[in-house]
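TA notes, week 10

Several of you asked for a full example with nothing omitted. So below is the full record: structure tokens for the whole chain, then the designed sequence directly under it. When grading your own attempts, check the secondary structure regions first.
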């Protein structure tokens, strides 16, 4: 038979199937799930405007402040690691509901904390929620979305993360401007930085309520032996005929003798499967380029080179708006050009812009107070390079890494693969965030950004050699 005619028939069949898809329901379900991404972004960005308040309230030094800021990431690493496995036992939706409760407790507790230890405990709880949401949201979306636009829907997770960051930057800026500074007493006698955390209570509550109106992942239902329920969910999403076919496809992709478990990650010859190492590499390099230094320490960074607190917070707002435009670009391109090209050119762009930032900050001088100062020209170059860097990240590694982790693993090891990759992602995040204040004191901004530029350059080689395209492939076709 002519291969061309076979392909044409396949395309017509796929089109017929796609026409039965309940697009509105798929999008509605994915939208609820991505509120977890919004909270992920908000919880990550809100700390940016509270650093001065934390230092004043808890009398912490640079190492202590770094740990207070980075403490959430310890919870993120633990949450991401255990969420994948627990989701294989209790379900994707159940883990997201638990995360929503933790978001609420953490937001309230971070604002009422009276000391570093209490603050760290509540931030770690929030980290557990962020870690769980970071791996479960893209996995859940990937498991309910059609392959034809799975990448776009999963990328909405990153759009939500950026909107969360942007929302945190805007609320931090507005609160600090209304009160006068982040350390000033505001409503009801509480300092402004405490209110910055409490703003998160509203979206966290909406997330919790919304989760009770979405179904469990059909692929989890099949893996746990509830085929009839899985068929009902898939029938609502894709039509009754396609729903039955997908249940059969999912069953064939799972091991017949046991439910998913961590030992499935082992390669036949020993060690981890190659696909697991690729997941660990993707997760780690997303952080080794230093992006969360901008997210967590943006206000401190710009104040260190002469900007006022108000101006530094406003720069964060501008960066957030630029990030939204960049991630929307990725949303439009990811199912057309593919995942690997976006990662490759994102790495190239980040390596170049980080190198420019390192060169610019190497020109900084010290004023009479010992603070760094940049000339107007060099400061403009640094600011433009920083925003270009954010654009490259959010048009590539920001969304694409999460999309790939959510879809690249075979069904049998998706939960466990996400657990290990999530641990690597948040462990790297913690390392970068915790060490930045010490790097800033030891080798200044130019040296710090030079190290991140090196990470971006190595990621170019990693993508070229190890990353394979997943665009347009059904989850049941993933190999590893």
């Amino acid at each position: 038979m002519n291969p061309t005619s076979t392909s044409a028939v396949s395309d017509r069949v796929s089109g017929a199937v796609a026409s039965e898809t309940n697009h509105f329901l798929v999008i509605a379900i994915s939208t609820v799930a991505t509120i977890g991404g919004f909270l992920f972004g908000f919880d990550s960005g809100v700390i940016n405007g509270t650093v001065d308040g934390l230092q004043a309230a808890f009398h912490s030094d640079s190492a202590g402040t770094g740990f207070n800021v980075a403490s959430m990431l310890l919870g993120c690493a633990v949450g991401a690691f255990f969420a994948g496995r627990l989701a294989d036992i209790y379900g994707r939706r159940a883990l997201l509901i638990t995360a929503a409760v933790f978001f609420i407790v953490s937001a309230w507790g971070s604002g009422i904390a009276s000391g570093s230890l209490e603050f760290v405990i509540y931030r770690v709880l929030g980290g557990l929620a962020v870690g769980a949401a970071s791996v479960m949201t893209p996995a859940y979306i990937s498991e309910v979305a059609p392959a034809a636009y799975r990448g776009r829907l999963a990328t909405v997770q990153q759009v939500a993360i950026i909107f969360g960051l942007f929302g945190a930057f805007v609320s931090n800026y507005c609160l600090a401007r209304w009160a006068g500074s982040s350390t000033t007493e505001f409503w009801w006698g509480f300092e402004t930085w405490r209110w910055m955390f409490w703003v998160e209570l509203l979206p966290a509550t909406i997330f919790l309520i919304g989760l009770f109106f979405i179904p469990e992942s059909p692929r989890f239902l099949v893996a746990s032996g509830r085929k009839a329920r899985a068929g009902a969910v898939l029938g609502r999403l894709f039509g009754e005929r396609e729903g039955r076919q997908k249940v059969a496809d999912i069953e064939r992709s799972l091991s017949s003798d046991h439910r998913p478990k961590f030992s499935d990650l082992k390669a036949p010859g020993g060690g981890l499967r190659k696909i697991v190492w690729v997941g660990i590499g993707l997760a780690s390099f997303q952080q080794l380029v230093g992006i969360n230094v901008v997210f967590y320490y943006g206000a401190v960074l710009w104040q260190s080179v002469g900007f006022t607190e108000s101006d530094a917070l406003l720069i964060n707002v501008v960066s957030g708006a630029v990030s939204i435009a960049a991630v929307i670009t990725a949303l439009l391109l990811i199912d057309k050009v593919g995942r690997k090209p976006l990662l490759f050119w994102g790495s190239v762009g980040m390596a170049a812009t980080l190198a420019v930032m390192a060169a610019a900050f190497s020109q900084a001088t010290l004023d009479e107070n010992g603070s760094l100062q940049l000339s107007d020209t060099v400061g403009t170059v640094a600011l433009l390079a920083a925003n270009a860097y954010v654009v490259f990240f959010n048009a590539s590694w920001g969304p694409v890494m999460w999309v790939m982790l959510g879809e690249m693993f075979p069904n049998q090891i998706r939960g466990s693969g996400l657990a290990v990759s999530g641990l690597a992602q948040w462990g790297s995040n913690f390392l970068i965030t915790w060490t930045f204040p010490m790097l800033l004191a030891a080798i200044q901004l130019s040296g710090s950004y030079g190290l991140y530029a090196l990470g971006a350059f190595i990621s170019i080689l990693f993508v070229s050699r190890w990353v394979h395209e997943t665009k347009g492939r059904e989850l049941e076709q993933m190999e590893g």
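The chain has a mean pLDDT of 79. Use that as a sanity check on your answer.
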